[in-house]
Each structure stands twice: as C-alpha cells, then as structure tokens.
Amino acid sequence: MSTPLDPQLFTTISQYDIDKRYKYLIKEVVKTQLIWILTDEHGCVMLNTDDEDCVPVWPNKEFAQAWATGDWESCKAKEIDLKKWHSHWTHGLEDDELAIVVFPNLEEDGLVVYPDELDYELKVQAKKARNHQKR
After folding, report:
1. Of 84, 98, 96, nearest in space to 36 by CA
2. Rg of the chain's alpha carbons, rounded to an integer?
3. What is the pLDDT of residues 115-129, one digit of tens each?
4. Residues in the chain with pLDDT values less than 70
5. What does the mean pLDDT of the chain come to?
6. What domains appear along the chain, each with residue ranges and CATH number?
7. What is the pLDDT, as a whole number, of residue 64?
C-alpha cells in the first residue's frame, strides 16, 4: 500500500522538467516498490508518439489518477509490484514492441524509453539504495 502524496508535494513535482520527473520516478518506484499505470475495460492505457506506441507509467497513484479525465475518465490507476514489473512487464512490453513514456505530465510531455532501459535504471537505483542502507 502506498502512502498518499501530499497535495503541495504533488504540485511541486508536477512542475519538474522531463529529466527531473524521470529521476523522481526511478527513486520513488524503488522506494515504494510500486509503479503505476492507467487501465480501462480494454487493459492498459496507451499513448502514441510519431515513432512509438507507449505505455505511460507514473511513480504515484495521484499522478496516474490525475490523467483520468476527459476521454480517460473511466480509467483507474493500477499499481504493479516492482518484482512483477521486472519479471513480466519488461519482457512483455519488449515482445509487443512497445516503449514506455515515463511520468508524462498533463501536457502529455514525458521521456520515452525502452523497457530494458527503464528496467536497468530501476535495478541500478535499487543497488544504490541497498548500498546506502548498509552504511
């Protein structure tokens, strides 16, 4: 279960640029062991860029749920355990030739990465966190 995000912190983080949101997502996902997507009756919500079909991911329920407006108002934020992400989602997205748009803001601005890139960054951050705890 994740801790609700303070509204003031939500506003502050929402104003981060792409790179800072990416770094926040990596650290937050490793800390909480959860990554968030949006789903509807058809499955996972998808976004399209000029070059890629993408699955958007968020670091907290509140950011994912903030996207559930307009055409997506029936969507629900869904948490995915980080272990399940590593074991199922990364390979599944690669097999389906899908990219990931990391922590898009409400203007649909987010960094597009490949599943193996995100997986690698999450594992590097987890190793850093474990090393930091040993000190």
Report:
1. 84
2. 14
3. 999 999 999 999 998
4. 1-2, 135
5. 92
6. 7-134 (3.40.1350.90)
7. 94
